[in-house]
Write a structure and sequence with these properties.
The chain is built from 11 helices and 20 strands. The chain is an alpha+beta fold and 401 residues long. It folds into 3 domains: 87 residues, Rossmann fold; 64 residues, Dna Ligase, domain 1 (2-Layer Sandwich), CATH 3.30.1490; 206 residues, D-amino Acid Aminotransferase, Chain A, domain 1. The strands form 5 sheets. Strands 11-12-15-19-17 form a 5-stranded antiparallel β-sheet. A hairpin with a 2-residue loop joins strand 9 and strand 10. The radius of gyration is 21 Å and the shape is globular. The N and C termini lie far apart (57 Å).
C-alpha cells in the first residue's frame, strides 16, 4: 500500500476550506500552518503547525520534520515566498524557481522586471525610509498610488491626489509593510473595470486563462478593497494581447505549474497592463467562482500538482452565463443584525455564505479581512448583472446597529 501523501497549506483563513476539502478528496494528509491556532482552517486539517509563515527557515524546518510531499500558500500572499523556498530546498514539485517567485511577489522587483523586459508598466520608485521618499518628490505626477511592496488584501494602499496627502499615505504603507519597503507608482486609470481573477499554468504553458470585472464600493472605509467580481470582463477585445504577454512573462521567469492570481487593466491611453501576477490562488473564492462558471476545477489541479500527481481537466472553457460574486461587508463598525436580499433580485442565488452570526461585532470594510461572507449570483443577461452590481443597495443590505 502506498504511503499517504502530506500537503502543507500555509495560513489558516476561511478561503482555505475548499482547498482542504479538495486535498482530502484526493486522499492527502493536510497540515495547516501559521502562528494563529484559532484560525478557522485549522479545525478542518489533519494537523496544525504553529509557525510564522513569512519565516522561510522556520517553515522549512517544520516541513522537513513532517516529511511533507508538497506545499502551497493558496490565497495567502505572505506565505508564497516561503512555500517556493521549501519547494526548492526539499526538491518538491515547484511552481517555479525561488528567485522568480521572489520577483513576482515583490511589487518593487516586479515593476523593475516588467520595465527591463519591455512590458507596459507604470513609473514607480521604492523606499525604505519615509524621509527619503519625502525628499524625492520632483518626479511625482498626481494622482499616485502609495502601497507596501509586500502586503495583500489592499492593506496599506492609498491613492493620493496632491503632495499634502503624501506623508500620511507613506505612514500607512510603512505600517502595513512586512519588510519595511514602500512603492510609490504612477496611477494607471482604467477603461471599464480592472480584472483580478485566477488562471492556471501547466508545465510552463497557460492552459486556462480568465479575466473578470473587479468592482469597488466607493463608500467603503477603503474604496480600494474589491467589493465584487463579475465574469466576463469589460475588455474582451484586449484579452488575447494580455494572454500573450502573460505567457511571455511566465516563460521569461521559467515558471512551471501553479494557479496564478493575475490583476490586469486597460488604461485610457489604450495600453493593457499586467499589474500583478502571483503564483497562488486568489482570495475571495475566485477559483470557486471559476468552477461554478466554467466547470474547470483549479483547486483540485493545484493540490495534485503540489504533491507531484498528474493534473487533469485544465482546459479553456466558456462561461455558462453571467456570474458575480459579492463580498459582503459592513459600512461601519457595530453589531451585525441581519442580511436582507430582495426577493425580486433579477438573479439566481447560487450560494449565500455568511461567516458571522446575529450579534457578532463587525468592522467597516478596510480590507479583505473585514469581509463577513460572500454571495454567488448567476444572471441570464449582462443587463441584469449591471443592475444588481451598480445599484447593489437596492437589492442587498447588511444591517448593523
Amino acid at each position: 500500500m502506498s504511503k499517504q501523501k502530506k500537503i502543507m497549506l500555509l495560513g489558516g483563513i476561511h478561503y482555505l476550506l475548499p482547498v482542504i476539502k479538495a486535498a482530502h478528496e484526493q486522499g492527502y494528509y493536510v497540515i495547516t500552518a501559521d502562528y494563529l491556532p484559532e484560525n478557522i482552517a485549522h479545525r478542518y486539517s489533519d494537523e496544525y503547525c504553529n509557525v510564522n509563515i513569512v519565516d522561510k527557515e522556520a517553515v522549512l524546518q517544520a516541513a522537513r520534520e513532517r516529511e511533507i510531499d508538497g506545499i502551497i500558500s493558496f490565497g495567502v500572499d505572505p506565505g508564497v515566498v516561503a512555500a517556493a523556498y521549501v519547494q526548492e530546498k526539499m526538491s518538491l514539485p515547484q511552481m517555479g524557481p525561488y528567485e522568480s517567485v521572489r520577483i513576482l511577489q515583490n511589487k518593487d522587483l516586479f515593476r523593475k522586471f516588467l520595465k527591463d523586459n519591455y512590458f507596459n508598466v507604470p513609473e514607480a520608485r521604492s523606499y525604505t525610509k519615509k524621509e527619503v521618499a519625502l525628499s524625492d518628490t520632483i518626479w511625482l505626477k498626481f494622482p499616485m498610488i502609495v502601497k507596501p511592496t509586500d502586503s495583500a488584501g489592499s492593506k496599506g494602499v492609498t491613492r493620493i491626489d496632491n503632495i499634502e496627502e503624501y506623508a500620511a499615505a507613506l505612514d500607512y504603507a510603512f505600517d502595513k509593510s512586512i519588510s519595511g519597503t514602500v512603492i510609490v507608482e504612477e496611477f494607471v486609470d482604467k477603461v471599464g473595470c480592472s480584472s483580478d481573477t485566477d488562471s492556471f499554468l501547466l508545465n510552463g504553458e497557460l492552459k486556462f486563462v480568465s479575466f473578470n470585472a473587479q468592482h469597488f464600493d466607493e463608500n467603503a472605509a477603503n474604496p480600494y478593497t474589491p467589493a465584487a467580481y463579475s465574469w466576463p470582463s469589460t475588455f474582451i477585445e484586449h484579452e488575447e494581447y494580455l494572454k500573450t504577454e502573460l505567457q511571455r512573462l511566465l516563460t521569461l521567469l521559467n515558471m512551471q505549474t501553479s494557479v496564478f492570481n493575475i490583476e490586469t487593466r486597460v488604461s485610457s491611453n489604450g495600453k493593457p497592463y499586467i499589474m500583478e501576477c502571483t503564483p497562488r490562488g486568489g482570495g475571495n473564492r475566485l477559483c470557486e467562482m471559476l468552477r461554478y462558471a466554467t466547470g474547470v476545477d483549479l483547486i483540485t489541479a493545484q493540490v495534485r500538482a503540489a504533491v507531484g500527481d498528474t493534473v487533469n481537466g485544465i482546459e479553456q472553457k466558456p462561461y455558462d452565463g453571467h456570474w458575480a460574486e459579492i463580498i459582503l461587508h459592513a459600512d461601519r463598525d457595530g453589531e451585525f443584525k441581519d442580511l436582507k436580499i430582495s426577493p425580486d433580485i433579477p438573479a439566481q442565488i447560487i450560494e449565500q455564505d455568511l461567516w458571522i452570526n446575529t450579534g457578532d461585532i463587525v468592522h467597516a470594510f478596510h480590507g479583505a479581512n473585514d469581509a463577513i461572507g460572500t454571495l454567488v449570483l448567476r444572471f441570464e443577461c449582462e443587463e441584469n448583472l449591471k443592475e444588481v452590481l451598480y445599484h447593489q443597495k437596492n437589492w442587498i443590505e447588511v444591517i448593523v446597529k
